[in-house]
């Protein structure tokens, strides 16, 4: 698709999304699509890694589908299937790669068994914030590398959600020293799990719907999930009273849509532009929604449920930082493709760190100093 075709198609899609989404981009998106005119309907099945209609994560997948359906005037009909309805959460990638499903919505680090490079397109320990990873993918060469990586598995990827900065997790016991991590059984996926193992803990990968029962029956001692909004919905505070933040492992977690490459290549240019625009819209709005809802949910957790907010000590942070850099470097040098992704990621992170050091970071410090509370 050449640039002129994409811009033309994108302009039509952008005009349509303004009508489809209303002022908030959320409330009207799930309404019925306008009937397709003089065009056959192409039906697409989207599998997800999330529980059905789960706030922020599951609904981001629903929103992508709703935007596509409405923006296409009904000529595309995307149906969403939650984890377990067609395939399990961790089988979504293979289902799309092999053509059992047409697209997925999930977190790319779930596919690290395919290539460790996928970690960099969700989150890595001590890595990029939400805005930084969006900048890298959209403008710093990340998308081209992601296309090449996922293309090896017959998949075309897109950014399609971001949960923002995640919390450090829920713990049944206090974490005061590095020794408190020894023997700790914690649900934590991706490279954050590798860091926990280096600290002496046992990292467990569980899908969202499996976490609460595992906490309840003692299979795990702690869990990270997302942040106050999603954590409140799962009720983790009932089983693990200590809530630690901020998290080191997912400072800005990108969620992705992966589309079967053969299906993608067969689409008309305007349909491709609609799907790209829908994913971009969902990406931006999900970050705004998480930011807003996390503030509300944190107030409920603290003031209505008596949750104890804790912070890891400087000693713990220093050691986590040392281990994280080594874990990410080891992962980044696993093979030639991953090394290219890692080097691009690291270069972008370091350049944006310089900007953050003179902009948001000192501003936030001064805002808290002045406003207090």
TrEMBL record:
> In this record, what's one Pfam family?
DctP
Q: Which UniProt keywords apply?
A: Metal-binding, Signal
User: InterPro entries per the record?
Assistant: DctP_fam, SBP_TakP-like, TAT_signal, TRAP_DctP_sf
Transmembrane segments annotated in the record for this chain: none
Q: Which GO terms describe its molecular function?
A: metal ion binding
PROSITE patterns to which the protein is assigned, alphabetical: PROKAR_LIPOPROTEIN, TAT
GO BP term, example:
transmembrane transport
Cellular compartments per GO CC:
tripartite ATP-independent periplasmic transporter complex
Q: Which domain of life is it from?
A: Bacteria
| UniProt-annotated binding residues for Na(+) | 225
**Binding of substrate, residues:** 166, 187, 224, 250
Q: Say yes or no: keyword Metal-binding present.
A: yes
Under the heading CDD domains, the entry gives: PBP2_TRAP_ketoacid_lactate_like (cd13604)
Protein's name according to its UniProt entry: C4-dicarboxylate ABC transporter
User: Which lineage ranks, top first, belong to the organism behind this chain?
Assistant: Bacteria, Pseudomonadati, Pseudomonadota, Alphaproteobacteria, Maricaulales
């Amino acid at each position: 698709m050449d640039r002129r075709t994409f811009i033309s198609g994108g302009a039509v899609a952008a005009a349509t999304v303004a009508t489809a989404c209303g002022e908030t981009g959320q409330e009207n998106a799930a309404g019925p699509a306008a009937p397709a005119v003089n065009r056959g309907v192409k039906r697409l099945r989207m599998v997800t890694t999330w529980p059905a209609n789960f706030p922020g994560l599951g609904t981001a997948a629903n929103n992508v589908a709703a935007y596509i359906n409405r923006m296409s005037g009904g000529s595309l009909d995307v149906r969403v299937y939650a984890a377990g309805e067609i395939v399990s959460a961790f089988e979504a990638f293979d289902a799309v790669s092999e053509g059992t499903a047409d697209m997925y919505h999930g977190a790319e680090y779930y596919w690290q068994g395919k290539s460790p490079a996928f970690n960099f397109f969700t989150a890595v320990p001590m890595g990029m914030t939400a805005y930084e990873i969006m900048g890298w993918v959209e403008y710093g060469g990340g998308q081209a590398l992601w296309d090449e990586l996922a293309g090896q598995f017959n998949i075309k990827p897109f950014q399609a959600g971001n949960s923002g900065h995640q919390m450090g997790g829920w713990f049944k016991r206090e974490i005061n020293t590095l020794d408190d991590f020894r023997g700790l059984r914690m649900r934590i996926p991706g490279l954050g799990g590798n860091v926990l193992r280096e600290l002496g803990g046992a990292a467990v990968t569980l899908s969202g719907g499996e976490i609460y029962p595992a906490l309840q029956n003692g299979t795990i001692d702690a869990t990270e999930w997302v942040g106050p909004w999603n954590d409140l919905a799962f009720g983790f505070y009932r089983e693990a009273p200590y809530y630690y933040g901020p998290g080191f492992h997912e400072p800005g977690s990108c969620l992705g849509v992966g589309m079967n490459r053969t299906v993608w290549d067969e689409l008309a240019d305007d349909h491709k532009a609609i799907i790209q625009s829908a994913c971009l819209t969902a990406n931006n709005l999900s970050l705004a929604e998480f930011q807003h809802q996390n503030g509300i949910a944190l107030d409920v957790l603290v003031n209505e449920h008596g949750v104890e907010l804790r912070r890891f000590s400087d000693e713990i942070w220093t050691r986590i930082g040392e281990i994280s850099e080594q874990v990410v470097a080891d992962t980044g040098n696993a093979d030639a493709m991953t090394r290219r992704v890692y080097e691009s990621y690291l270069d972008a992170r370091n350049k944006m760190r310089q900007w953050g050091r003179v902009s948001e970071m000192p501003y936030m410090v001064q805002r808290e100093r002045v406003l207090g509370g």
